[in-house]
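Deliverable D5.2: sample structural annotation.
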Amino acid sequence: MGRKAQRARFGFMQHRDFPLIILAAGIILTVGIWDFTNHIRSDKISEQTRDQADEIRLQLVNYFSSYFDFLSRSAIIVSDGNGSVSRHFSKFCQSVFQSSPGILGVQLIDAQTVSPVWLEVAPGQNQKYFNDYFSSKIASTPEWQRNIQKAVERNKVIVSSPMDLYPDSAQTDWFVYAVYPVRDASARAAKFLVQYVSVKEALDRFFKAQNVIYYHYLVSYRWEILYSDLKFWHEVSKERPFKLTRQIEIADKDWFLNIWPREDYLADQVQYEVTSILILTMGLLLSISTALFAWSLINRQQILEKLVKIRTEQLEQVNLALKSKNEELETFLYVVSHDLKAPLVSIKGFTSLLAGSLREKLSDEEKHAVDRINANTSRMHEMIQDLLELSRVGRVEESTSDVDTGQIVRDILDEMKPILEQKHVQIELKGSFPVLQGSSTRFAQLFSNLIGNAVKYIGAQPQPKIEIGVTQSQDHQSQFYVRDNGPGIPKEYQEKIFMVFQRGPEQTKTEGTGIGLSIVKKIVESKGGKVWLNSEVGKGSTFFFMLPNQVSS
């Protein structure tokens, strides 16, 4: 796209009213999102309130039913033949009062005289008051006859119409009661058990157990407030946001549960929404600033493209120069190594004469000197030979074929058989060695160096062991390893030993050129693989290398 086309494309951004258009669009978008988030917030609070109300309603019905479960278990032991309360049942009642503070008392009523036989009350309750209350407020009403008839038919009836425990005083404390028939030997209802439960105590215990911190609750019956967690409950008649009412069926009567979110919870929600709107507004302003800044950068686009092009060309030139230098270094290494072989061969020839037929004419000191020259010449020859091999890897093209890596390993082990038997090294092969495409010479160098190092540096182990294996990874690569139980390599040397002429602390005591692992690393990396080491002092070493299942030379 040319410069004129770019200007035509972004020409509208150069208009002086463009920032005002962006600002107006931002305000409209902000108001729209604010209204949308308010609806989401209201729907979320309403849904949570509905879920809370339904859950509390179900729990409250089950909770009140559980208060009267013990009547059926205790009816057969409430009294002896004389009609006095048994000692065991008295203790049982006291334990029930302690575990269920809402239970005010348990009373036994004679079915014929409709008069109290005995009464067990909770600590702090007036026993005479309950007897008088039953006689004057309960037994004298037509509802009592209906209730005991229902109890005989159903075996239990809960009177869920709350009654005022102190009707003649300013104090209001509602209670409900249950009636359970106590039958004689002929299955006739000879007596009735009456259990009194304080609505306020029971509800207060129930709602405290919920540990609710986000909602208000109010339970009512026929416009009378039975319980409220608000200090001034008369204010709940006012319209409140998100208020819900649920009908609660207890026995044959209906109570009502009112629930609504607490004011501090709603305030937190509003504050959260205001904060989100402020963040959104700041985001819009930042977007506007970014857009204007991007507009100012449009004119610099071509300059940046030119700079990128120049930098790319410079990097390409640097890469070519580095490649050329690397090739020069490899050539220099090859030439120097190759040219050093000739004088070393001459030196070795002359020292061989001195160590052969002329040795008897030399003094002991001269013999020692000749032996030292011969040993160092041989070591120098090995180092130069290894350097030559290192320079050839990846530079000299070699013929490739299908190479059976397992056969390569077995051939190397056959060649090393004398030294393996001499050191009593146990060899173990594991895994299915694959057939790979490559140079058999390079694979032989690779395994020979790793296995040779393991044999050379295994040390004086009582049971020396070398394990050579291979596993297949999920990405179609073969992972080879050579593991020994030798002395191991300290961590600070594990990276260095793959460098030329670098050796571990224990390896310096053993003959070697310090180039073998460098050759291994270069062979593996030239085939697109990687090599690494796991070792711990005193626990041996494991050399790993991974190769693609289709590799080149």
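Annotation notes: Residues 401-548 form a domain with the Heat Shock Protein 90 fold (CATH 3.30.565.10). The radius of gyration is 49 Å.
The annotation will be released with the project's public dataset once the embargo ends.
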